[in-house]
Fold this protein.
Amino acid sequence: MHPALLRAALAVALLVQVLPAQSIVSTQPAGPNAPSVRRIAGLTRLDLAGRSLAVSPQFEFVQSFFEGDELAAALDTNAHPEWVGVSANVYVCEHKDEIGWAMSPALVDVRGSFQTVAFVAGGVPSNRITLDSGFLSGFVGGGLGRGLDVVIDTDGDGNLSFGDWIDGGAAEPGLWLLYPTALQGPYLVTEVLYSGGNFLGQDLYYPSNIASLGELPLVVVSHGNGHNYQWYDHIGFHLASYGYVVMSHQNNTVPGVVQASTTTLTNTNYLLGNLTTIAGGALLGHLDRHRIAWIGHSRGGEGVAIAYDRLFDGTYTPTNFSISDIVFVSSIAPTDFQGTNVANPHGVPYHLWTGGADSDVNGCADCNLCQTFHLHERATGPRSSISLHGAGHGAFHNSNSGGLFAAGPCQLTRGDVNLLMKTYLLPLMEWYVKGNPAGRECLWRQWESFHSPGAPSSPCVVIDLMHREPAAGRLVIDDFETNADLALSSSGGSVTYDVDNAAAGLLDDATTSFTTSAADPMNGMTFSGSASDTTRGMVFDWNGVDRQIAFALVPGLSNTTAWDHLSLRACQATRHPLTTAVLGDLDFTVRLRDAQGASASIRISAYGGGIEEPYQRTDCGTGAGWANEWETVRIPLADFARVAGSLDRTQIVGVDLLFGPSHGSAQGRLGLDDLEFVRD
C-alpha cells in the first residue's frame, strides 16, 4: 500500500527558485530512544507513473510494469495549474526511501539522462510523458521487482531537494519494473529425490547456491489422486530458481482427502525435522520455518485446506511447525468431498486455480464435490483466484504420462498451462509469502492489459482473476450477505434499480444442469455447495434499453479519500439468451455522485477488457457455456475526480452501475457481488 502521503493533497506549494543546499534536509527523531535521522523536507508526493488509455480517463496511475512495457508518467495540470507553462527535468532513479535520499540526494537517471518536459494546460491527456519504450531491465536477481522513483526536479539542481515532486521516495518505490515472470530465475537449481519411509517420498528443489542466500521460504506440493509427486517440476524448478525451497511429496490420496491432508502434515513435519541429513544438510540454516506455503492439486488441493483446518481446530499437532508458520495455501482444481466445516482454509491467505476444460473436477451443476470455487468462498482472509479457459485437470502437472482430462473447445496444451502457471506463481509467492508489493497488481489487473512477456499468446488463452483484500483493506457497500431485500444494501443504504429480472440469493445452481431456466435465476453459479455455504449475490439483465442500479451510500462510506479503488466482481450468466446472442466481453459504466450533484462516469472496459463470456463448453445440460466465471474489476477512485474535477470525494452519496446501449453492451445477463471500496 502506498503511504498515506501518496494519496494526500499537496503538502507544500511549488517552489521554483533555487534553494541553498543546506535547506534540503530536516532532522527528525525516529523514536523516543533513537538517534535523529535526516530526511528531505518539503517534498510533494503524488502518483506520476502509469499507462496511457485509449479512452476516458486517458491515463491509469499504476505501480507495476513488466520489462518491455512502455513506461509512462503524467501530471494533471487541471489539479495542479501552477505547472502550466513551466519546464522541468524529469528523472527515473533507483528507489531510495526517505533516509536514503537524504543521505544521497543526487539524481542519477537510470536511462542515462533526464528528460526536460514543458507542462501545458489540458490536464493529464496533454501531459503524458513516455519515460521508457521498453528498454529498461527489471532484473533484480532472486525475488521480484526493480524499484524506481520518478522525480520532477523543480529547481534544476540535479538533487532531490525542497520543493521537488516525487512518485516514491518512501517505504515503497514509485513503480516496480518486473522481470518477465514467465522466465526462469537467475539461480541454478538442485533437485534431490529421497524417502523417509511410508508416504514420505520427497522431491526437493532448491537454489544450488543456497549456502549464500540466507533463509528461504518453503513451498510444499501435494499431488492429486492418480498423480505422482515427481510431476511438478514446473513449480519446483521455477520457484527454486528465484530463491525458494520446494518439496513435492508422496500423497496418500486413494483412501480419501482426509488421509491426503495427513500426508501434507507429516511430510512438512518430516522435512523440518531432518534438515541435518536431507540433501546432505544443504538446507540446514537456510530454510525459513516461519514462511511455509502449501500447494495441493485435486484431492491434494482439498487436502491442503483440510490440513490447515486440522491445525486450526487443534485436531493435529505437529512437532516441528505450528499453524502460524503456514502463511499461504493454494489449491489447484480441488475437490470438495468434506464440505464447509472441514475443507476450509479459514483466515490464511488462500488462492485457487481452476481449469474451464477440467473433465475430472469438472464444475458441473450435478457434482457438488467437483465445484472448485466452494473452497475459495470459504476463505475468510485475503484470497485470489485464477481461472483458465481450456485448461484440463491434468494440464496443471507436467507429466506427459498422465492424461489432460479435458473437454471443450480451444483446449490448452500442458506446456501452455504450465507456462501460464509460472507467470503467476512468483507474484503469488512474493506477495502472500514475502509481503513483496511488487507482485500484488499481478493478482487483480486484467490479463488483457497486464501479463508477463513470454506467456502464451494464443487467442485460446482466456484468464479471469478474482482478488479480495483482507478485512482492513475493504469497505463494503454491498456484498449481499445481509439485508436479503434488494432495496437495502449490506451497508444499510437504499438501493434502487430498473434492471430486468433482478434477484438475490445463494450463488448455487439449484438444478443439476446448466440449461438456462427462468425458474433458476442462479443458473451456472457454483460458489456455494453444502447447506452451510453462504455466499450470496445478485443477478439481473437488460435488453436494448438503458438500465441502472443505484447504491446510496450511508454517511460512514461517503469520504472515499482513504481508499484507492472501487471494486466489484461480476460474471456473465452461462447459456442465457442475452449472453449467447453476443459472445464477448460485457461492458458497462460506473458512476459516482457527490452531495452537490456532481458526478463522474467511467466504463469498465477503459482499463483493458470487460466481463468475460463463459467458456463455451457443452454437456451438463443443453446449450454451450460452462460454470459462470467471475472476475474482479477495480476502478481507481482518483480517476473519477479527474474525469469530473468538481467531484468531491469527501462527500460521495451514491455509486451507480449503468447498463445498456448508452453505457456499454446493449444487452446482457450479469451476476454481481462484492461492491466495495478497497486499498492495497
Summary: The radius of gyration is 26 Å.
